[in-house]
Amino acid sequence: MIASAIAWLDLSPRAMLFLVLLGAVLLIAPFIANDYLLTVLILILYFAYVGQAWNIMMGFAGQLSLGHALYVGLGAYVSAVLFTRYGVGPWIGVLPAMATAVTCGAAIGFLAFRFRVAGVYFAILTIAFAEFARIGFDHLDFVNASAGLFLPVAQYAHNDLWRLRGSPAMFYYVILAATVLALLICRLLLRSRIGYLWLAIREDEVAARAAGIATFRYKMYAVMISAAVTSFAGVFYAFFYNNLFPEQVFNISRSIEIILGTIIGGIGTLFGPILGAFVLTGLAEALNSAMGHFGLDLPGAKQVFYGICLLLVVMARPHGLWPWLAQRIGVAEPRK
C-alpha cells in the first residue's frame, strides 16, 4: 500500500519520508503552537489552497487570471448572506456559492474564448469583472454595501464544525484538510485526459486546435473548475474573519496575493503553491512581527517586500523554487 502511494505521487522514499514528517508536524501544530503562530499557519494554508485553485487555470491550462479575488468574494458573500439572513449553514451554503462562482467564471470564459480574447487582454477582462463586483457590492444595500456584512460571533464552549463556529484549531484543521484535498484534486486532474489536453493548449493552442482538440470547451472547464475550488476559500474566509467589505474582499491586491505564492513556488507544479505560500506568507509575517517589535510603521512595506521576493525569485529561479528544491529531495512531478 505504501509502495503504491509512493508510485502514485511519483516520490522517492526519501521524499515520502520528508512529506510524512511534514504532515505529522502540521497535524500536531495546534497542540504546540500559540494562537498567533496558529493564525499564521491558517493564513499560509489559505494561500496554499487558493494558489492551487488558481494554478488549475494558469499553471495547467495557461489562462492568466488577475481577478481571482472575484471568486473568493462571491463564495464569501453568498455563504455569508445565506447564513445571516436564512440560517443556512456553510456546508450547504458552499453549494450555491460554488454555483454562483462557476456561473460567473463561465460568463467570463464564454466572452473571452468565444471572441478569441487571450493573453494580456484576457487578464484585463478578469480584472474588469472583479472591479465590477467590487463596485456593485459596494452599492448593494442587500449586503449592507460599503458598511460591511458581519457574521454573528458568539463564545462557544465547544467547536461547532457544522456551522463553522469555534476555536482557531478547528479552522486550522478545516483549511489543512481543504489544502490536502485540493492537492489530490490537482494531482488527479494532471493524470487525467483533461490534464494532458490542458497541457497541449497551454504549450501551443493553435497546434492543439489543429490536432482536433476542442480548445474552447476545455478552457471553459479550466475556468469553471478553478472558480468552483476558489469559491470554497471565500466561504472559509467569511466564517473565519466574520466580516466582509467589498473594498477588502474584491480588491485587486487580493488577487495579486493569491497568485504570488504560486509564481514564487512554481507555476504548473503540484507543490509549488504550497511551498510559495510557506515562504512568502511566513516571511511577510516575520517582517510584520519585526516591525512591530521595533515600533516601526511603514505603510506599503508588505507590498514592497512582496515585490522584492518576486524579483529575486524571477532572477535566481525563473521557474520557481519548487522545481529547484524537487531535484534535491528526489521528487519527480508528472511534468513541469
Characterization of this structure:
- The protein is an all-alpha fold.
- The chain has a single domain (9-329), classed as ABC transporter involved in vitamin B12 uptake, BtuC.
- The protein has 15 helices and two strands.
- The protein has a two-stranded antiparallel ribbon with strand order 1-2.
- It is globular and about 60 Å long.
- The protein starts with a helix and ends in a 7-residue tail after the last helix.
Report a brief summary of the structure.
This protein has 336 residues and is an all-alpha fold.
Comma- or semicolon-separated keywords:
336 residues, mainly alpha, ABC transporter involved in vitamin B12 uptake, BtuC, two-stranded antiparallel sheet
**From the coordinates shown, what is the CATH architecture?**
Orthogonal Bundle
Q: Radius of gyration, rounded?
A: 20 Å
Low-confidence regions: 1-6
The count of β-strands is 2
What series of H and E elements makes up the topology?
HHHHHHEHHHHEHHHHH
Shape: globular
Mean pLDDT: 89
Strand order of the largest sheet: 1-2
Ends apart, CA distance between termini: 27 Å
Our count of domains comes out at: 1
Q: What's the CATH topology label? A: ABC transporter involved in vitamin B12 uptake, BtuC
How many alpha or pi helices? Answer: 15
